[in-house]
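User: Could you write out the 3D structure of this protein bound to pyridoxal-5'-phosphate? I've included everything you need below.
Assistant: Certainly. Input first, then the structure.
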Amino acid sequence: MNWPEHGGQPDLMKKLLHAEELEVLDFSANLNPLGPPEWLQGELEAQWKNLLSYPDPNYSISNSALARMEKIRDEEILLTNGGAEAIFLAAKYFEGKRAGIVHPAFSEYERACRHYHLKVTDILTSPEEDFRLPMNQLLESLPNLDVLFLCRPNNPAGVVIPKGEIKMLLEQGLHQQTFLVIDEAFVDFVPSESLTPLLQEYPNLILLRSLTKMYTIPGLRLGYMMAREAVINEMKNFQVPWSVNALASAVAPLLLRDKSYSAHTVCWLEEQTKKLQTFAQNNDFYLSNTSVNFYLLQDNRQRERTEALFTFLFQHGILARHTYNFKGLEGSHLRLAIRSEEENAKLLTILKKWREKV
Ligand SMILES: Cc1ncc(COP(=O)(O)O)c(C=O)c1O
């Protein structure tokens, strides 16, 4: 089968699997299961008049508000059309140079690097080693790289690389003119792990953010990038004018200001994750050591039957995310979103059925 690049496409998957009539719950997209904050729809509707004129090309008001919240200078932040644009801008900044990508990782780093003719070296981590960084290998490789792309917390496992290791890489990178581009698209789910404070210490750090995941707004397209002023200035030059639409830029600071929404999500998620972990332990499934709203799953008793498990889940109305296009996994695991309590319970019932079947 021609597996799609990204999750969150239930209609396409149903078509590919010749089951257009089947009702499925989409566990393949990694968005906040609680949905957007309640006030957002009204705010977007109230902002519609902003669509009648061009947005400020510098998004000065939103930029300043976000910079204040991140406790950095206005010149150190750039609003982007989703995290995806931030990834492509970062790759463009290193056009034609040498990049390392720590895998398994979001597939767009590689696509962006190839698009801008970077010479790419793959660095693999594995579920057997809990996705720990091969620090010796990495420290040895840094002199031969201009930039290292890392996803933290990582997609697809939800694992967070220890801050100490990131600091070690940044420190060595500083001496060898190697940058670290760290995608923090999911850091809102573990806010204590944000690396923003390190920006002051390390001019070779570029942080990428997405508001898509925490706020469940994939259609709005909203993200930002944080780095030293000189880097941000150059990125601005690469950006398409008015790349971020007026509605997105207007609600960006309001979203980040709503601390109770994200705090509630984090609390709720912790509870759900514990239940899933207990189930996995009691029923002999591997569940990655996740800190976010998705995880990797494998049947410990039948590691080679992940595709059969995917099909079983699908036939029972659960769409999981395949991992064929994640280097280092190549389909060995499934990625599943944490959804509502009721939907998670449904998933566990079906996994129990699978367990009893074999
Ligand atoms: C790790 C990671 N970074 C960035 C993105 C892109 O996010 P956005 O929708 O904000 O472009 C995704 C989307 O799946 C992702 O998983």
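Residues 82-84, 106, 151, 155, 183, 185, 210, 212, 218, 223 surround pyridoxal-5'-phosphate (CB under 6 Å).
User: Perfect, thank you.
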